[in-house]
Specification:
Helix content is 36%, strand content 18%. It contains five helices and five strands.
Length: 154
Amino acid sequence: IGLPNAGKSSLLETLTNATPKIADYPFTTLEPNLGMMGHITIADIPGLIEGASEGKGLGIKFLQHVEKTKLLVHCVSIENDDVIKIYRTVRHELEKYNPKLLQKQEIVLLTKTDLADAKEVNKKLQQLKTIAQDVFPITILDEKDIKNLTKKLT
């Protein structure tokens, strides 16, 4: 889950056999994409935006899919100036749609860390850690990051 352009489809492609459409513009993903990582099914849900729980964007249609998951992998791009606001926006939409979604286990990924220097990565990582428990920096370009996430998911 995450806002548009948070790196969800790129992550799905890296972790699985899926070949989702990937582009650098919002709402590239218009339908959920599924991929298999061993015996685990991973779903890439189109980006959620403010108002998604009330039908804005593609949210209502896809929030139903989030209800079926065992674990939420919440992608927050390092490109965002206010990562806490971005995180809370998605969480708020989940809560408005179905408060039980907030009880699901969640991993928060600070994505696209290759686009920032170590100081910025650490600053935003620490910000997210003040409001979420399992927070990890990741870039799909680093094999070690992908291996660590794969271990966490299995």
